[in-house]
């Protein structure tokens, strides 16, 4: 099982996505990029990755993703590098009007 000592990153899921996943809200997965980490998450919980990434592999418009407290906005997830121990937080984007 992945863990911080063997190259894993931690993905923290919001409550809104936990209905698609029967595991804990924090999941350790392997991935050298954000896209690889979300692919690993999808393999563990089929359908969950599709709630985060669209059909083109981009972050959905109404989802915010942070890597180590820095928002990943307007970047292709395959170009966002990850290192062992990085923390990824997925949140529903909040918009106002």
As for the number of domains, it is 1
Unreliable segments (pLDDT under 50, ≥5 consecutive)?
Answer: 1-5
Order of helices and strands: EEHHEEE
CATH superfamily: Beta-grasp domain
**Spatial shape:** globular
CATH fold group: Ubiquitin-like (UB roll)
CATH architecture: Roll
Overview features:
alpha+beta; Ubiquitin-like (UB roll); 2 helices; globular; disordered N terminus
Report on the architecture of this protein.
This protein has helices at 34-44, 48-52, and strands at residues 8-12, 26-30, 63-67, 70-72, 87-92. With 97 residues, it is an alpha+beta fold. It has a five-stranded mixed beta sheet with strand order 2-1-5-3-4, with helices on one face.
Could you provide a short overview of the structure?
This protein is 16% helix and 25% strand.
Topology:
Layout: E1 8-12, E2 26-30, H1 34-44, H2 48-52, E3 63-67, E4 70-72, E5 87-92
Parallel strand pairs: 1-5
Antiparallel strand pairs: 1-2, 3-4, 3-5
């Amino acid at each position: 099982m992945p863990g911080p000592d063997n190259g894993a990153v931690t993905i923290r899921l919001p409550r809104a996505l936990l209905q698609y996943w029967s595991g804990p809200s924090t999941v350790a997965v392997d991935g050298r990029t954000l896209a690889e980490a979300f692919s690993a998450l999808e393999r563990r919980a089929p359908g969950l990755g599709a709630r985060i990434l669209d059909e083109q592999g981009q972050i959905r418009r109404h989802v915010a993703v942070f890597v180590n407290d820095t928002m990943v906005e307007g970047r292709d997830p395959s170009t966002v590098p990850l290192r062992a121990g990085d923390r990824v937080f997925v949140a529903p984007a909040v918009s106002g009007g």
